[in-house]
Amino acid sequence: xxxxxxxxxxxxxxxxxxxxxxxxxxxxxxxxxxIRGKLMEGGNPFEGPRSEEYPxxxxxxxxxxxxxxxxxxxxxxxxxxxxxATISTAYTxxxxxxxxxxxxxxxCDRFGCMIGAKSQPTNTLLPIVxxxxxxxxxxxxxxxxxxxxxxxxxxxxxxxxxxIDQSGEEVFQPADLIFxxxxxxxxxxxxxxxGIGEAYDPASGKGVVGRNLTHQVSFTAAQAFFEKPxxxxxxxxxxxxxxxxxSASMPR
Length: 252
Known about the structure:
The chain has helices at 12-26, 63-74, 121-124, 126-129, 184-193, and strands at residues 34-35, 38-39, 80-81, 91-92, 98-99, 142-150, 156-164, 170-174, 241-243, 248-250.
């Protein structure tokens, strides 16, 4: 009662095929813990059943993550490799896009990947989109708002977007379909600027746009001293170990 979180409304079995398709697109590295109801050693035993294994094996485990894994096991937990959208080995996805495996240089945490092992739209989707004759790409543009027409009975329809081009001019781009892909905070901001949906009011609890909006925030819960150097600057940003039960995870 009075909790802000509600059930999604769809089941895992309904959405699992789409997750699997996305995993193959970006080449997610990891270890499944449940394949069609059979528990797999080394994976997350509490996850919903998957239809198949991850496309690429888990990334290499850094020294600090191995310490965390040992400590978790000693306490009776079930640690498993952190799934990552950075491929661990050379991989070719179903669209024919080939990328090399991670070199563990350590610079990918907030930076692009110089060799393309880190999955992102520019190295998974853009090569396919560029081949379409019906597609035109505009660089250096910033969308200001979605043009949204409201009907007499409260219904509405998005007809396009207003954006600023490279020269600083505002342009209207008509569209039948509009995809918000500017990250959660910017997507929400764009909806609010465009007057789409009912903005969440924390005082009354009404509204949905911006409701339960959070950001990934990390902070040190405890300090510890180790006998050996941890060398946490080495490895890959997503390489690490996690376990379910206490929602604990430890990056590299």
